Amino acid sequence: MKKRLLILSGLVLLGCLIAEGAEEKQAVVSNGVKESALATVTLTEVAEKHLAIATAPVESKNLPATRLYGGELVLADSAGADGQSIFSLLSQMTPADRLRLAEEQINADGVLKSAEVEVAAAEVAVKRAEALLESKVGSARSVDEAQARFDLARTALEAGKARRELLGAPVLAVKPPETLWVKVPVYVGDLEKIDSKQPASVGRLDGRPGPDGRAAEPVSAPPSTDPATSTVDLFYAVKNPGATLLPGQKVGVTISLKTVGEKLVVPHAAILYDIQGGTWVYQSLGDRVYARHRVQISRVVGDSAVLSSGPEPGVAVVTDGAAELFGTEFGVGK
Predict the structure, then answer these.
(1) Is residue 137 part of a domain?
(2) Domain encompassing residue 281
């Protein structure tokens, strides 16, 4: 009996020791500073006027949700939605195949030029035969023969144009075209969620928000699918000023979804980046007092930044002079 009591007492003591150890903190944080207690910057009236501080309110807007997809820049399809072209095969071609295609394009250009000359010459011949007939020195047969040659030349010209359009834009052009298409493979299960009529934004492949995104308009194109991956290709046209984009380049494409919700929006000029890549805005506390507030950027639309977290709607944030406030807070401003 005593032995059982000793064992029971030992178990109780062991349980108490374990419970005491469990309550002991495994880590201690010293000198912690909450973001709500960050330093504030107070300017004099002269300093605020010198920095030309300007503010804008945080707004809440109804905006569609978006999703990032990977895309590839391709040459625009000159045949249009009702035609068929070689453009969708470019990504699968070897360099030798592209060289042969370039030769076909050059030959087609030559045939097209010859057909245009033939049409012009046949048109002159028709007018000359008609003038001779009116002068009573020609015959109706000559007019008919000239007209037949003109019709044949015009038919050859139309066939040459169709053949050239089928071969697409020059694949060995020295300068990239002013407009490129973006091919975006989309899983068939996502098609119902996508608002394919809305413009997309072409930017970084990693999807990091920034002001350098380019607007891309949806375009119709010949059907393009990949049964192996269950994807359907969507196409968007993007302007290429300065020829900074190249065919075959991989890009990130932000596409609008049909889902709409309330989003926080601030001018992109209000966003500041710290050395770790964190994003901040300066919130106006009144009486020339400003405090940093952390924000999370969802995406950038034009000159506005859409936030996934940030100050409440109506709060004034600094747009002009935000960088100077940042330098002042950390002692690098003047």
Answers:
(1) yes
(2) 35-63+262-329
Q: Is residue 10 part of a domain?
A: no
Query: What's the pTM?
Result: 0.54
Q: Evaluate whether 182 touches 199 at the Cβ level (below 8 Å).
A: no
Cα dihedral sign, 184-252-87-229: negative
**Is residue 180 domain-shared with residue 301, that is, in the same domain?**
no
| Alpha carbons 290 and 285: distance in angstroms, whole number | 5
Least Cα distance to 111 among 39, 59, 166 occurs for 166
For 276, phi and psi rounded to 5 degrees? -90, 5
Sequential pLDDT tens for the chain (334 residues) = 555 555 556 555 556 555 555 555 556 656 656 665 577 888 888 888 888 888 899 999 888 888 889 998 887 765 444 444 555 556 566 667 777 888 888 888 889 999 999 999 999 999 999 888 888 888 888 889 989 999 999 999 999 898 888 777 777 665 667 888 899 999 999 889 999 888 998 887 765 655 567 889 998 877 788 888 899 999 999 998 877 888 778 898 988 888 888 889 999 889 988 888 889 999 988 888 888 899 998 887 778 888 988 888 999 999 998 888 888 887 765 5
